[in-house]
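Exercise 3.2. Students should predict the tertiary structure of the chain below and write it as structure tokens, then compare their answer with the key that follows.

Predict this chain's 3D structure.
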Amino acid sequence: METETMNTPSTVEKQVHLSVEQADRLQHLAEVHQMSEDELIARALDVFFSLAQVSDDSLEGTDWALLSEESLRRIWDNDQDAVYDNWRELYDVPTGSCGRCSISIQ
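Answer key:
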């Protein structure tokens, strides 16, 4: 009697060499996202391979900007970064024109 196999993806074991800093960061990210290091690497490779598919000679700089927009939004649109939204207050920059230069600060 034949046993049916489920649609599970086959895997191949690979050995990679990481710096201590990379290994520590990988471990930390895996813990934060509650996944295995292998799963985190697989997801990162999926993103990398997706970007590699679109990186042909016809890709313009604006297209690269659009590709990175979502990643940058995640980095900059969060509570930790929100403190910098009021940069004038944070760095005590006055509104109006600068007294020693001809640049007008809006």
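Discussion points: The two ends are 78 Å apart (CA to CA). The first helix runs from residue 20 to 32.
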